[in-house]
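Q: Sequence in, structure out?
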Amino acid sequence: MIARRVALARLVLPLSLLVSGCGAGPEQEPVPTGRTSMPAPFTDDMIAVARRFVQPSNDLRLAVLEEELRRRELPYALQTFPGGGADEGRSDGQNVVVSFGAGSPRVVVGGHFDADRLDDGALSHGLVDNGAGVLVLLRVAEALRDAALQGTIHVVFFDMEELGLLGSRAYVEALDPAPGAVMVNVDIVGYGDTLLYGPGDLETEHPVSGHVHRVCARHAVACVGTPRMPPSDDRSFERAGIPAVSLAMLPADEAHRLWLFLNGGLSDSLRGALAPPILQIIHTDRDTEDKLEPAALTRAARIVTDLALALDAAAQ
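A: Exactly. Output:
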């Protein structure tokens, strides 16, 4: 037991080098961008919106998303793609695209709205994975509506991520991106105070990860860069040669443990010991509304909005 504790200590200690030094104190107001206001804090009303996404089918989750976009007067387009009948016999999937600016997108900010099926065939509540991301993207879209943009930003709600990234793959295949296009993926942002992002290595040049680190500093949020992240819609963009980064929000301990779980080259016993609670929440019947924290959603919405604006400005 003592040897095991020593081994764990040696693994966890170096992670402090990966964490932005800005996140230890109280959350501060972000530096104003001068181009739009940051999203307002989340309240319990938004948790009630999240509850609406608990549906028996992904088609009904799509219907709720469309209703929320109309209620916010956010025009959108549906992108239909072949689904292969993989989800309850659905022949097609539907990505939902909200566009700001005109022309080919320079920045794509996206996350999936579909939920995974459990072993008994029922649909997961899917609120951490990824109802929280949907709530954040709705707030981001509202903020970008009034922004003075240099280029074009797409906010995309992807369908069929849980079936093999089908929606993001279809979106990328139809995409005519602007030169230097980049993508930000929002997946698992329901609770916690630390941003985990990847790929992220401060010693390696990356068109997005450096901006993530600076945005974390502006918002006084600790951030942990990881060379690997669990597979999500960012992979479709990377495979097409479009630089992408995936963002998750977790408590600091879980972020560190997930870094080790993904990158540490651990033995099976250590991987089991370090597996963070998030891996026992997603894709299970425990992915429920009680996990959502308004403060975490607020952090995520402000970071993603600021990051989208920073990436838009960097194109000039």
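The first helix runs from residue 2 to 12.
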